[in-house]
Amino acid sequence: MSTERPLRADARRNRERILQAARHAFAAEGIGVPLDEIARRAEVGPGTVHRHFPTKETLFEAVVVEHLEQLTRDARAALQADEAGSAFFAFLIRMTGEADAKQDLADAIAGAGANLGSATLQVAADLREIFASLLKRAQRAKVVRADVDAADVQAIVLAALTAQRQRADTTRPDRLAALVFDCLRPNDPVARRQG
Predict the structure, then answer these.
(1) How far is CA 11 from CA 5, 39, 40, 73, 126, in A?
(2) Is 63 exposed, middle or buried (CB count within 10 Å of its CB: 0-12, 13-18, 19+)?
(3) CB-hemisphere CA count at 13 Å for 71?
(4) What does the alpha-carbon distance between residue 36 and residue 1 come to, in Å, rounded to a whole number?
(5) pLDDT tens sequence for the chain (195 residues)
(6) What is the phi-psi region of residue 6: left when phi exceeds 0, alpha when psi lies from -120 to 50, beta otherwise?
(7) Is the dihedral of CA 43, 46, 52, 56 positive or negative?
């Protein structure tokens, strides 16, 4: 039984303002943003930030967990889609675009930044499990090569993210990721059209 009391309405609002400011700050600048700057952007005092999030790593982790939970929901939705290949590749493009737009998620995916706690590691493990199911489904539909596993795909996602950052093509932001992800498609031209 939890002994933690629910937050008062004003404390909940302050916590959400801090999280929102942190989301934007971390997305734009990564984990290097000082807590005092996040407090300023949230229009609360530094003490308020520290009451909710004792360290910057705690706040960073809360933001990362939100992202991972959203990606997990998206992966579950992709599992329900009619077309396994389209759903799989659309999820990869979305995940890469999200990571590119949000530096904090890119830090987490690359293993940079803070040491993540057990709750975050559990959310990440859930996402990996659902993603592995999404991959297997696409492989059963023969729209993804059978000789790759989830760890291969994670490395390919990081490669796509690096390629997009190097090229910085704002007119066609997903183009390089799509080119990199082409390596996951089988050599069969019929299967390529279906994915």
Answers:
(1) 12, 14, 17, 27, 30
(2) buried
(3) 30
(4) 35
(5) 445 556 688 888 999 999 999 998 988 887 888 999 999 999 999 999 999 999 888 898 888 888 889 899 999 999 999 999 999 999 998 888 777 666 555 555 555 445 667 888 888 889 999 999 999 999 999 999 999 999 999 889 888 888 877 776 667 767 888 888 999 999 865 544 555
(6) beta
(7) positive
Q: What count of other Cβ atoms lies within 10 Å of the Cβ of residue 100? A: 19
Are the C-beta atoms of residues 114 and 31 closer than 8 Å to each other? yes
- CA 168 from chain centre, in angstroms, equals 19
